[in-house]
Amino acid sequence: MNGTSATLMLQTIMVLMDRQNGTDVTNFPGSFSDDMELERCYGNYGCFSKAYPWTENRPDNYFPLSPESMAIRYPTFTRRNRKTPVFLQADNIERIRNANIDPRGPFYIISHGFLEGGHKPWMQEMVNALLNIEGNDAATAIVVDWIGGSQPPYGQAVANIRLIGVMTAHLVHNLYVELGLSNVDNFHFIGHSLGAHLAGYCGHALQKKFNLKLGRITGLDPAAPHFSKTVTIVRLDRSDAKYVDVIHTNAIPLYMSGLGISEPIGHVDFFPNGGSLQPGCGSNSRSPSADITPTVMRMLGCHHVRSHEYFTESIAPSCPFIAMQCESYEAFLAGNCTTCDLKHFCIPMGYHSYSMYKRLHTAGLVDTNSNIALYSMTGNNKPFCRVHYEVTLKVSNSTASRTHGPESGRVSITLVDRNNNKSEHKYIDDEQKFYKPGDVENKMIAVKDKGHPPVFVIVEWKYETNLFNPMTWRLIKSPSIYIEYLKFSSIEYNTDITVCPKQNKPVVANLPTIMKTKYCKLRK
C-alpha cells in the first residue's frame, strides 16, 4: 500500500469512526488555483509556504484555512470555573483582561487531534486532574478547541495546525504581556496526535516572533502520517520548548493501523509496552458490536488514545509509574536493565517526569541536545500503572530434577506482601516454554502495586499436553517442575527477595506451591 492510498484509508476509517462527533463541518480547498500558489498570508499571523520542506514525505499539501472559517476557541478553566469556561481568543486583549486569570500560574494548554474537538470528555478529565494537583490553586487550563479545522481531509487538518499553532503563540504572548509575566517557563502545552505537532508550531512561533520559549511541551503519541522522517521544523522536536517529553503508544506503520510517530523526538521519550501496541486494546478486548463504527474505533484508536489516558493517570498515579532507560524494549523485557544508575536512568512517565529530568540536568548527567528513551509496562485497564520486577528462575539440576527430565509449560506467580495482600496471577512467559534441569531464565514482569514489596510467592505450574509434541507427554510421571529458586528484584522499591520451595519439592501442575526465603536457608 502506497502512502496516498494509506492516507485515504486512514481518512475513510476515521470519518466512519467519528460519527459521534455530531458535527457537519467539512472543509475542502477552495479551488484548483490554490495549488498554483507557493505562499499565502494571514495578517498578523504571517505567511505560510507550500514549498520544501512542507512537501517532504507528504502525498498532499494544503494552505491553512482562514482563522475566520475555523473559528478557533480557547475555553479556559480554573478552580473557580470548572464547569463554565471563559472563552478566550488569540488576539482579543479585552477578554484576557476580563478573564480574572491568576498570573502565578501554572498555565496548561491542551490540544486534541484530528476529528476531535474541545468538548471531548478526556480533555475535561485532564483539565480537572491538573487543577486538582495539590498547590495548584492559581492554575489555569486552556483548551485549544479547533474542531472547525480538524475535519477531513487529513492533509487539510495537517496544514491548519500550522496556523493554529501561531495563533496560540499569539495568545500565550498576550497572556505574558497582560499578566506582567517575566517569562513563559510556567506554561505547559499538552497535545495529542496532531495536537502534539500543533504544540511544536506554537513553541517555534513563540521563539521566532516573540523571543519567548515555552517551559514544557508534552507530546501524546504525536501523529505519524505526514510527519515521520521530516525535518524538525515540520514536526514537534525538542527545540520547541525547554523540556519536551513524549509518550509513544501506537508507533507502527500506517498500513498496520499505526497512527503515532516512532522516532524519539523529545528530551525524554517514553515507550510503554514497547510504544506500538497497548495491552487491553486487542480486537477481543470488548464484546463485538453490531455497529462497525465503535468496533473499528476500538481496534484502530485504542492504542493511540492510551497516550492521553496514561498521561491523565500519571498526574495522580496509583504507583510511581517508573520507566527505565534501556537499549530496546526487548532488552528491557529480558531483564537487561533493572538497576537505576548512570547508565540506566529511571524517570516517571507522564506529568512528573520533569522533576526527575531537572534533577539529572542540574547534576550535569543529561545533555539537553540528546534524547533519553525509556520503557515500561502497564496493565490492561485502569488504573494502568504497574510496578516492575526482574524475575530470575533457576530450574534445579538435582538428581530428582534430572531424573524427572525436561518439562514444557508456564510458570504462574502471585506475589504476597507483609499485609497478606496478593497481586494478580502473572505468567513469567506468555507462551509455553521448554525448561531443562539447570536452566536459568530472566524476565521482566509488572504487577499492580500493593504498597509493599513481596515477602513470599505462590507458584503454579501450568501444563498443557500437545499431541504433536512428545516433550509434553506425561504417561507415568506427574507434570511438574523442580524450581531451585525464584529471585525478584524490584525497580520501584529497590529490593531483592529470593524464595525457594519447601524441602526441594517440585511444583506439581495445578497445585499452588508457597515459596519463602526461609526455605532457601534450609536447603541442603
TrEMBL record:
<comment type="similarity">
    <text>Belongs to the AB hydrolase superfamily. Lipase family.</text>
</comment>
<dbReference type="InterPro" id="IPR029058">
    <property type="entry name" value="AB_hydrolase_fold"/>
</dbReference>
<dbReference type="InterPro" id="IPR002331">
    <property type="entry name" value="Lipase_panc"/>
</dbReference>
<keyword id="KW-1015">Disulfide bond</keyword>
<keyword id="KW-0964">Secreted</keyword>
<dbReference type="InterPro" id="IPR000734">
    <property type="entry name" value="TAG_lipase"/>
</dbReference>
<dbReference type="InterPro" id="IPR013818">
    <property type="entry name" value="Lipase"/>
</dbReference>
<feature type="domain" description="Lipase">
    <location>
        <begin position="39"/>
        <end position="356"/>
    </location>
</feature>
<protein>
    <recommendedName>
        <fullName>Lipase domain-containing protein</fullName>
    </recommendedName>
</protein>
<dbReference type="InterPro" id="IPR033906">
    <property type="entry name" value="Lipase_N"/>
</dbReference>
<dbReference type="Pfam" id="PF00151">
    <property type="entry name" value="Lipase"/>
</dbReference>
<dbReference type="InterPro" id="IPR016272">
    <property type="entry name" value="Lipase_LIPH"/>
</dbReference>
